[in-house]
Design brief:
299 residues, alpha/beta, Arc Repressor Mutant, subunit A, D-Maltodextrin-Binding Protein, domain 2, 5-stranded mixed beta sheet
Amino acid sequence: MTIPDLNLLITLDAVLAEGSVARAAKRLHLSPSAMSRALARLRETTGDPLLVRSGRGLVPTPRALALRERVSHLVDEAQAMLRPTQVLDLRQLARTFTLRTSEGFVEGFGPQLIARVEAAAPGVRLCFLQKPDKDSKALREGIVDLETGVIEPTTAPELYGQALFRDHYIGVVRAGHPLARGKMSAARYAGGRHVMVSRTGADKGVIDDALQAQGLARKVVTIVGGFSTALGLARGSDLIASVPERHTQNLRQGLHSFALPVPTEPFTVSLLWHPRYAADPAHRWLRGLIVEICAQREE
């Protein structure tokens, strides 16, 4: 059996990432003729042209698009495996880590995380960005170091993930709200006026499905994009907000919280990162710190 030339994976990764033979050659420090020969070998090995002419440029074939993420993952893994182990000196580490998180995570876990990072690595700075959508492009392109979220079928398959904590939805109203007194029932809950949290503008979710199973429907008066906005509206009106309990613990001060009177599935919030950082000692240290802090809060 002929052993394939695994160096072609590096060439293929560069060609697919750059979309240009000339730029791929520059990235790999090859001459244009050497790059052309390597591309010819790739085409022969894969049985596909990979890049085809379109006007003055080149466009990837469907096979090339299907291979792009897998090849990038394989090359990142190989480079991480062959990279020499570094001795991490946290006191000398100077680096900014960017974390993309949903509302409530920074308020709930940020203070302790920042304090722990500052004590161990004073040269490290954390940059927190809001997470307006579930697109993992920022992680894949290295713009973001870490992200928190629920792993779903649409999550990019090449990403690594580690569970942080379990969460579930609860109801929240202002102090003195009629629902803050007496026994809660599905009918009382559904009969109120609700604020819905949806980053896409959807007016129905898992809570509505649970109510429908009991022949009930709630009246959604307004839809907002974040938990803090929903809780702010609940604080200043008779609106009912339904939010994750652990994610919003520090945002619900002074409000009345109650268990939902309909069953909804709990969900797991995970930490996500790209394989390019899997073996990075500083990145691994920060990941471990976040996991540890979230575990302490769950106890």
